[in-house]
Design brief:
The complex is a heterodimer of chains A (107) and B (118).
Chain A: E1 4-7, E2 10-13, E3 19-25, E4 33-38, E5 45-49, E6 53-54, E7 62-67, E8 70-75, E9 85-90, E10 97-98, E11 102-106
Parallel strand pairs in A: 2-11
Antiparallel strand pairs in A: 1-3, 3-8, 4-5, 4-9, 5-6, 7-8, 9-10, 9-11
Chain B: E1 3-7, E2 10-12, E3 18-25, E4 34-39, E5 45-51, E6 57-59, E7 67-72, E8 77-82, E9 91-98, E10 105-108, E11 112-116
Parallel strand pairs in B: 2-11
Antiparallel strand pairs in B: 1-3, 3-8, 4-5, 4-9, 5-6, 7-8, 9-10, 9-11
The chains are: A mainly beta (107), B mainly beta (118).
């Protein structure tokens, strides 16, 4: 199974900050990586697929990059609605696996 | 708009069974892969099963032989039959739709809660 490791596990930041979350795969997954946002008590929401393609309707302050084993999700200027938990997921092979999540909190 | 509405969750004893349903609307259902993804209380996301357009199924090892995913394209629905349930199956179960290419989940339902307890 491909292990997905996110860092940090939690992060405190302020409105307007630039934030980067890292996801590392245990083997080469090319660009077969997605990012999801989940708020408490809500379903996950798709943000990015194929490592860097924004889903329709996702604000442009979100961006994704990387290929192979190392990936990043960047929020260029944090907004109040961005405080949530973020998950990466690989979809190159079964079982599909998620990172453990990064909780983004208000400082 | 895409809508995915799960149902069928509830409280069940260990060893029992449940059948989850997901009613889909707002897209061409038979052109998309579908998934079930679960989240134990306070934990992260865990993929459970996929079913492709043609019915090919895949499962995470922990549910193989106990869970069966199926779809009814005429009813725009996907199902998860869960047998021999264990306490560790307790979770919110989400139905998720893949994009047209089968790359990633692009829409999610609100979930249905399964609790396995005596």
């Amino acid at each position: 199974d491909i292990q997905m490791t996110q860092s940090p596990s939690s992060l405190s930041a302020s409105i307007g900050d630039r934030v980067t979350i890292t996801c590392r795969a245990s083997q080469d997954i090319s660009n077969n990586l997605a990012w999801f946002q989940q708020k408490p008590g809500k379903a996950p929401k798709s943000l990015i697929y194929t490592a860097s393609t924004l889903q329709s309707g996702v604000p442009s302050r979100f961006s994704g990059s990387g290929s192979g084993t190392d990936f990043t999700l960047t929020i260029s200027s944090l907004q109040p609605e961005d405080f949530a938990t973020y998950y990466c997921q690989q979809h190159i092979s079964y079982p599909v696996t998620f990172g453990q999540g990064t909780r983004l909190e208000i400082k | 708009d895409v809508q995915l509405v799960e149902s069928g969750g509830g409280l069940v004893q260990p060893g029992g069974s449940l059948r989850l349903s997901c009613a889909a609307s707002g897209f061409s259902f038979d052109n998309h892969w579908m998934s079930w993804v679960r989240q134990a209380p306070g934990k992260g996301l865990e993929w459970v099963a996929n079913i492709k357009r043609g019915g090919d199924e895949r499962y995470v090892d922990s549910v193989k032989g106990r869970f069966t995913i199926s779809r009814d394209n005429a009813k725009n629905s996907v199902f998860l039959q869960m047998n021999n349930l264990r306490a560790e199956d307790t979770a919110m179960y989400y139905c998720a739709k893949y994009d047209a290419i089968g790359h990633s989940h692009d829409s999610w339902g609100q979930g249905t809660l399964v609790t396995v307890s005596s």
